[in-house]
Amino acid sequence: MGVRLRAASVPGPAHTETGVPNQDAVLIRQGRWGWLAAVSDGMGSRPRADIGARTLCKAALDSVRELHFDCTNRALVEAIESNWLKRLDDLQIAANDAVATCLLAWGLPDSRFRLAQLGDGLILGHPAPACGLLSRDGGSFGNLTRGLGLSWRLEDWRFDSGQLLARGDALVLMTDGIADDLGSTDGLVSMLARELRNRGARSARAALTRDLTDWPTAHHSDDKTVAIIYRV
């Protein structure tokens, strides 16, 4: 058995109509060192929100590659913040102009994982892969609207950990463009894992992109981004 990662991100209709770039970002990576899924939502009121989100995902990858998996939560957060600020500085962009949220799932080849979240959006788990906050199918944790560039306190982050033990165990990270429209999350994670199980990377991304583009909620306007990690 192994772990697969799939993701998709689409701009919301409001941004498409006005020519505003997608202010969400997602990055998934997998190798001998383990795997990472990072999702970020740039704060729309900031002029470089899209760059803030993209650089935050890259900063998360920088951080997990330089840290030991068993590092403290503080060390992880400080590394993400430092790498994010360095990338923005290289682009001559002020952090306050690029505020962005962070949803992160970092795992090892044995499928142990740790989670970190700053700001809104949602992390779901199925069936009970985490030690506390993700305690059932559809169990989740979210947060208030905070983000790097606006909040620097460790207390503003939420953390969890666990292991994807059996086939079908999964995690889903999503921005609030999806999360805010969900009436119920029960069964959502297991359904997504089943639907993607037999799809290759390209097919899975196309299917997710189609679902996000054809979003059923009337008058929806926000960007939508999702990352899925599941045991096969």
TrEMBL record:
Signal peptide: none
Taxonomy, superkingdom: Bacteria
Ranges for domain PPM-type phosphatase: 12-210
Pfam families named in the record: PP2C_2 (PF13672)
InterPro entries: PPM-type-like_dom_sf, PPM-type_phosphatase-like_dom
Protein name (Swiss-Prot/TrEMBL): PPM-type phosphatase domain-containing protein
Organism of derivation: Marichromatium gracile (Chromatium gracile)
